[in-house]
Amino acid sequence: MSKQKIVLIGNGMAGVRCIEEMLKIQPNHFEITIFGSEPHPNYNRILLSKVLQGDTTIDDITLNDWNWYEENGIQLYTGETVTHIDTAKQVVYSDKDREVRYDQLILATGSLPFILPIPGVDKEGVTGFRDIQDCEKMMEYSNKYKKAAVIGGGLLGLEAARGLLDLGMEVDVIHLSDYLMDRQLDSAASKLLQKELEGQGMNFLLGKNTQEVIGNTHVEGLRFSDGEEIKADLVVMAVGIKPHIQLAIDSEIPVNRGIIVNDYMETNIPNVYAVGECAEHRGVVYGLVAPLYEQGKVLAKRICGIEGDPYEGTVLSTQLKVSGVDVFSAGEIFESEQTKTIKSFNDWEGTYKNILIQDGKIIGAVLFGDTKEGNKLLSFINKRADVTEYLEAEKGEEAGASLVATMPNEEIICGCNGVTKGDIVQAIESQGLTSVEEVKGCTSASRSCGGCKSLVADLLECTLGDAFSKSNQKEPICSCTTLSRDDVIAEIREKNLTHTREVMSVLGWTTSEGCSKCRPALNYYLGMVNPLEYKDERESRYVNERLHANIQKDGTFSVVPRMYGGVTNPDQLRKIADVADKYNVPLLKVTGGQRIDMFGVKKEDLPKVWADLDMPSGYAYGKTLRTVKTCVGESFCRFGTQDSMSLGIALEKKLERVGTPHKFKMAVSACPRNCAESGIKDLGVVGVDGAWEIYVGGNGGTHLRAADLLCKVKTSDEVIEITGAYFQYYRETAVYLERTSVWVERMGLDSIRAVIEDKQNRIELNQRLDEALSVLQDPWKEALNSDRILKDLYQSVKVPAGVK
Amino acid sequence: MEKTLQRIKVATVSELPKDLGKTVRVGSHEIALFHLVNGKIRAIENRCPHKGGVLAEGMVSGEHVFCPMHDWKINVCDGEVQKPDRGCVNTFKVEIENEDVYIVLDK
Ligand code: SRM
Ligand SMILES: Cc1cc2nc3c(=O)[nH]c(=O)nc-3n(C[C@H](O)[C@H](O)[C@H](O)COP(=O)(O)OP(=O)(O)OC[C@H]3O[C@@H](n4cnc5c(N)ncnc54)[C@H](O)[C@@H]3O)c2cc1C
Ligand code: SF4
Ligand code: FES
């Protein structure tokens, strides 16, 4: 039987993807010819933004290299455009006078950038942003010119603008609406985005209608309908795209906005199909790859003669690929009288979330700042899930894994690269993959925008079960290295490394000097591994920990002395009052940690304030034990069953000063009424009749978490022993800057309990902790006793005006 | 326009610990002086272009300082803020003569 002759017009993402699907179904069944106007093999158009932003190169974005075409016996004509189709004879004609007969013809001609119909757009220096050539043109212009104007404040325009900034140009973004990305974002998210991008250096001209491109042969600027003008050497048109359908029109294939297709991507001409951005399905023309890949799948089955589900349209989701900005939007985004919302706005962290609900179903969502939830929300929207299901999932601990477990195998996990759940699960199983990075390498999932990483991790977890622990996931310490915390600590131990610089050079850091992320982390790890010999590097510490005081926004500092267990006396209070008077301390405040904070102290005054106070440092600035809050307990309270104050004070005195991966807070309450809030502490103790309960992993901060019961013991001594062991185990196994609330979840409470329950472990952990504690002294005293420290760190230079 | 330059002694090299910043106030100027690990000494304006963070207290890595307020990374040689943030701080010329460190100011 002779092979079926397939011709594909358009060597782009949608068409080639459809061919790949066909080859998967029936490998040796077709004789395939592909025409492409561009001189390149099929590449990932999405990543042009990242090429422009300098994150990757043109060479790295090829999807199917020349070999792929050869290996699959595909006849490829690049740099060649099909100019006519004779749909009666079933022949296509190219601009190189080639004629090719087909049995089945796929049109995948994509789209063209929409160029505003205004005077001057034909001048040199006006470009769209669609292909490699446009990208190269912008890079070339950035070498010669300074000022760029991008018309269009949508996804494409903003990605282009960010790229041009990275190429060193000054960038004005002109947008017709008052809101950026107004088709994907609601006004609140849009304003947050604008603020963020302005911070990155973009300049916006909103509500502006461009009327003319001015200049001689070359662009010199733009004129707007209000008469205002700006200068520009390069103008990027990113106002939209229009389906590339001229060829279809000329060949009398029915079109509307795009080439009209049914649910099987068939046009109404026999044996002629269309996929991708050139196709119009149920009145919609799509401009993102996820739907185009779905279309390609449906069409591949059709051509192979396999019964398949029809294509019924796709809910769109978008993600902006600009570093430092996380934006996600999917489905409906505009509120109406029929919709309700779940909204949250965190000004401090710059995060925003708006979920739209209609008739109890989630129909759309906008996320800004933190987009981790994006893919999950998309899948709820696609399932038309009940909002209660979402709220339940949000509560449940295993939400992620159980959500992916219920997805069908065909569901697309990575929209950018069209990778399905089935593809990923199969790769994990057949190739023994165990990490997100490996899955990325084998399947391309999460290779483009990275938005689906958390779903990939959930899939690993649900496929491998216990064999996958999130703790195996190698997260590099920072961008100076690919090594994870565990790798680095293993190397420090094995090679006896003793200095941050040594670690960085022996382990091949990409920058010889490190950064503000890795240096404090290395300093901590080195000290943890070798507490007796390691000399703490003050240069690698954040200012608060270097100066032993908290910096304020105006450059002054705060001073918090210890008040063990929140217990004080008239003597201490008098001293604090006197010092506050003497140094004009602007604010005295009782903190949330049961002690007194003196705010607004000048750096030069810090040593004098400490000397006069003559109290130990409260380490309110440190990654170390902060406070041990206590309630009054049995000595005064009618319900108290235990001496909470004494235990709190004993714990604070024992554990103070030694460094931990993140701050560590404790509390001791003398009954379950829990007035010291032991349930939200890194370690909290609650007295019950004749015993103490020990709770761990609580947090009262950004991510509120109730503590878990670790164990129940009889005596205060046992509490101290267990607390010491637990504290040291956290010191030895947590990632720098990982609070215990996160650590407990990563390690698993049971596995921590198993370690602490073992008597021998407890003894050894406490020995190592005591060793680390043995060499520490109060940092304020240490500074006061060293002229060198006082000079190096606390003195500034003052030269009166007029001195030569 | 005529410019007068003023050369002011602010420290000796040995007074400046390496990889740390020092705040220098000259009249109304507030300057952050850094002794880099390669031995060079550099001076920039002591205010971060973001929200005015005190740069002398930042962590110094090679030729860059990380602002203690929100971690912007700033080159202490040319004053340029590093990607993805943008901006620039003034730099001041530093001269060293027999262990003495001078800052040169436009008047
Ligand atoms: C002074 C105080 C507020 C007060 O007026 O009461 C305070 C002040 C600061 N807190 Fe706090 N926190 C204070 C109690 C708390 C508490 C309540 C407590 O300890 O019982 C919490 C929630 C409990 C918890 O941590 O689980 C708390 C959760 C945070 C967080 C969020 C931590 C988290 O893991 O989510 C941060 C940010 C961080 O550490 O990264 C933070 C960071 C800060 C910093 C250091 C901000 C910074 O990095 O510059 C603030 C310094 C202000 C300044 O200019 O000096 N502060 N902070 C409290 C000092 C307690 C003390 O005596 O040491
Ligand atoms: C900068 C940029 C960033 C993007 N970012 C994203 C993103 O983050 N997420 C996302 O989902 N989508 C993104 N997109 C959109 C995505 O790239 C497109 O949806 C996708 O490439 C469309 O695929 P297609 O095959 O329909 O068209 P194309 O990939 O454009 O392929 C069509 C090809 O056909 C060729 N052709 C046309 N007519 C003829 C002819 N007569 N003869 C021969 N060849 C012809 C064209 O030259 C072209 O090479 C982005 C696009 C750009 C430009
Ligand atoms: S003191 Fe704590 S809660 Fe208050 S603004 Fe500062 S970090 Fe936020
Ligand atoms: S003030 Fe310097 S980073 Fe914000």
TrEMBL record, chain A:
Domain Nitrite/Sulfite reductase ferredoxin-like: 551-614
Binding-site residues for [4Fe-4S] cluster, renumbered to this chain: C631, C637, C671, C675
Annotated FAD/NAD(P)-binding domain residues: 5-281
Pfam families to which the protein is assigned, alphabetical: Fer2_BFD (PF04324), NIR_SIR (PF01077), NIR_SIR_ferr (PF03460), Pyr_redox_2 (PF07992), Rubredoxin_C (PF18267)
Entry's Gene Ontology BP terms: nitrate assimilation
Positions annotated to bind siroheme: C675
Protein name per Swiss-Prot or TrEMBL: NAD(P)/FAD-dependent oxidoreductase
Organism ancestry: Bacteria, Bacillati, Bacillota, Bacilli, Bacillales
From TrEMBL, chain B:
Pfam families tied to this protein: Rieske
The Rieske domain, residue ranges: 8-103
GO molecular function ontology, one term from the record: oxidoreductase activity, acting on paired donors, with incorporation or reduction of molecular oxygen
Top-level taxon: Bacteria
Family matches, as InterPro entries: Rieske-like_NirD, Rieske_2Fe-2S, Rieske_2Fe-2S_sf
UniProt feature coiled coil, ranges: none
GO BP: nitrate assimilation
UniProt keyword terms in alphabetical order: 2Fe-2S, Iron, Iron-sulfur, Metal-binding, Nitrate assimilation, Oxidoreductase
Keyword Transit peptide included in the entry's annotation: no
Database matches in NCBIfam families: nirD_assim_sml
Name of protein: Nitrite reductase (NAD(P)H) small subunit
